[in-house]
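worker-03 picked up job from queue 'complexes'. Input manifest follows; two sequence lines, order preserved.
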Amino acid sequence: MSNAASIRASKSNSILADLMSSKGQAVLLMLPPAFLLFTLFVALPLFDAAYYSLFKWNGYGTPTDFVGLDNFRQVLNHGIFWQSVRNTLIVLAVSLFIQLPLALGLALMVYEKTPANTLFRLVFFLPYILAEIASGLIWSFVFDGNAGVASALFKSLGMNPVFILADRHWAFLAITLVVLWKYFGFHMMIFVAALQSVPKELLEAARLEGAKRWEVVRFVQVPLIGAAIGVSAFFAVVGSLQLFDVVIPLTNGGPSNSTHTIVTYLYTFGLTRTRIGFGSAVGVLLFIAAVGVSIFYQRQTNRGSK
Amino acid sequence: MISARLIPQLARLAILLIVVTFVIGPLTVAVFGGFKTNGELLANPFGIPSHWNTEFYSALLNDPGFWKYLGNSLIISLSTVVLTLIVAAAAAYVFAQIRFFGSKMLMSYLLAGLVFPFATAILPLFIKVRDFGLLDSYWAVILPQTAFGLSLSILLFKTFFEQLPKELFEAAYVEGCGYIRFFWRFTLPLSTPILATVGVFAFVQSWNNFLLPLVVINSRDLFTWPLGMMQFRGEFLVEWNRVLAFITLTILPAVVFFVAAQKYIVAGLTGGAVKG
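worker-03 finished. Artifact:
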């Protein structure tokens, strides 16, 4: 805007000029804190991970021992890494194919707004807000072969108590049970919110046409909450990829490293042994997996909305 | 006709009660376990205690270390909440109100945190925190935690701010009210529901966080309660009753808090889930 123009301008234009400066101030004052925090503690560490993954480095001084892709080669040749990938995939499969249908079934039972349903929903959701670490610890007592509920159960069946968490065949199954316990209420809640937003008239119409209860579910309700199911599946996958807290108090990755997830693997073999380069390589692989999942998810939702 | 409707209803109720038992069972085991002697715990792990021993609970309540853990967690969580609310709301306000060159790109950048797990960058984060000289301090937990929560918080705030009536801002700016003053005087006071949701969410995340404090905190004086709990577990390996008492005492405030704030927690989840 030229000088002459602003002199000729009436009051409204000078307000505009004020606004411009107030606008500028707002941008310059209100954005940098978020930008700075995010850059320093999220973005830069991510780039660092990619950089460090090319070095053999114990974290002291600066990384100088450039090894190219050797860390990745080591990770990919490590049997325990593949075991941790397998375990992560097991959690993922259980989350998607057991937990989600279970959560959907329960959501269909309690989505209607009655006081009793509200109470059920609250109870089912409760484990989600408890700390993973406390949940894991409680369950490690439940599974304890000496004192736990499981041991009492075995004894009452006249069997010798099995140390579930120390048993290679059972330990990881036990972990997935705890994951189920902890997170099904979260997915149920997403489904409940979606089901409540389905217009009642549609259900009425279907019923008037003689649709049975399960037909209403199958052909009206489930198709209409497709987006929520997608969101829930996405959370299930990302959640499985970062499972850590629950595993530590339950098995700490044992027995003989058979129950690691990708993140406990990263922690155990990267951080506790101060192999920063190696651990960063695992982090990069995890990052690629997570981004892959997001891209896949976006593709699917875009296709769905067309 | 009556029985045809009654049977599905009974089946439904039976299933719901089984799930309730599955959810509540382990929790009651923990609460009761804290009242039992170790001997009784072995003989009767899941029943009601035959004698309500309060000594294990009171031992913890009289242990300054226990309160120290809770205090540390509280300081860190409250600071995280305050910082998250200020920083995220301010940024979201700019994105919601002001179009400027690069604003879209900048926002995609800040929202990128939604897609990848915290753990991917935990090692470089540890190095970064150490290089800043923050290792073993409250800030070592507060700052990265806030940073990682920003993406979701900004998204939630922005969606809410965009739904506020535009006329309000136009009226205020004719009166000569600038952007920043409008934010303080009008936007924030009108946004208490979303402030509560984001705040409660940040609090719960921080209160339960384990991986980050585990990596960046070493000295016992600064332990948050999850670290203290694992330490305690290590010290009382065979005394499950004490460990269960510890768990119960830390879970109890969480449950009370949850019942009080559940409206906001659920809103945050479904809001974030539907829009994200």
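worker-03 released lock.
Chain B has two domains: 2-33, 64-275.
Residues 86 and 195 of chain B are 10 Å apart (CA to CA).
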